[in-house]
Amino acid sequence: MRIATWNVNSIRTRYGRVVDWLVRNDVDVLAMQEIKCKPEQFPVEAFEQAGYQLEIHGLNQWNGVAFASKHEMTEVSRGFDAMPGFGKPIKGQEAVQGEGPNGLPLEARALGVTVGDLRLWSLYVPNGRGLEDPHFSYKLAWLEALRTNTEAWLAEDPELPLALMGDWNIAPFDADMGDPSFTPGVSTHVSAEERAMFASFAPSVSDVVRPIVPEGYTFWDYKAGRFPKNEGMRIDFIMGSEAFADAVTGASIDRDERKGDAPSDHVPVVCDVDPSLFGGTFEDEYDRPMVF
DNA sequence: ATGCCATCAGAATGATGA
């Protein structure tokens, strides 16, 4: 079973490339970030014609997360418990977003679904903007709330095959930062606070791709020829619980998707899991031969 | 110091991104 995450940077601009990639690679479940649209604006037909169902969480032209899956998705969660908001205090039209425990508007950055025995999240971690910016403390608070939830989910079911997939907007190690415009001690994505926060997700979840793909970036800025110079960053991760990690049989970062016409600035990160290692009914349900 | 390039909304001398 093939599972992937991809910050698509506008699904309306990119859906042709995304659906083509899904079909070519026989992907079962894709977590998308930065769809940059509301559900009614999402190009659902292109996905459905290719055999994919969709779950979409989009509030406006910013952020937005979604899942495309060949298999039924249940227990859909938009956001997580005590997720903080950001922006100007709720008033008028913004009230449709709801508000976080800090009284600020919620953003479309987290979507959870259950597929078989798997619990999967598509996550778009706040950027941070600058170390002194209010967006930076939002980023850390948002991640702390996510970690608290993660620990609670696994306390309730230590055997849960859980994956937190998405754009984490953190380069956890020095080798993950190849963009010279990011300065240690000055820039977001490489600060000690962000790296400590990322590290604090252990031992609940761990990066299931890095052991198999030790090197490589997942993002290259459009500006300044970052891709041809290979000045990228590794910031997109599939973080799996122990039960999930134990079932991983392969992984890849599809660097080629940064090439060609109108690419996203991020590329897909992929892992393969063996459903039989989860037990339960998952194997029976998904190892059935395809019938056309 | 800034733009670099890309996206969206809507008409900005914009906002956001990482």
Automatic annotation (TrEMBL):
Protein name as it appears in the record: Exodeoxyribonuclease III
Family: Belongs to the DNA repair enzymes AP/ExoA family.
Site positions for Interaction with DNA substrate: 266
Record: residues binding Mg(2+): 7, 34, 167, 169, 265-266
GO biological process, one term: DNA repair
A GO molecular function held by the record: double-stranded DNA 3'-5' DNA exonuclease activity
Endonuclease/exonuclease/phosphatase domain sequence ranges: 4-266
Needed cofactors: Mg(2+); Mn(2+)
Cofactor comment text: Probably binds two magnesium or manganese ions per subunit.
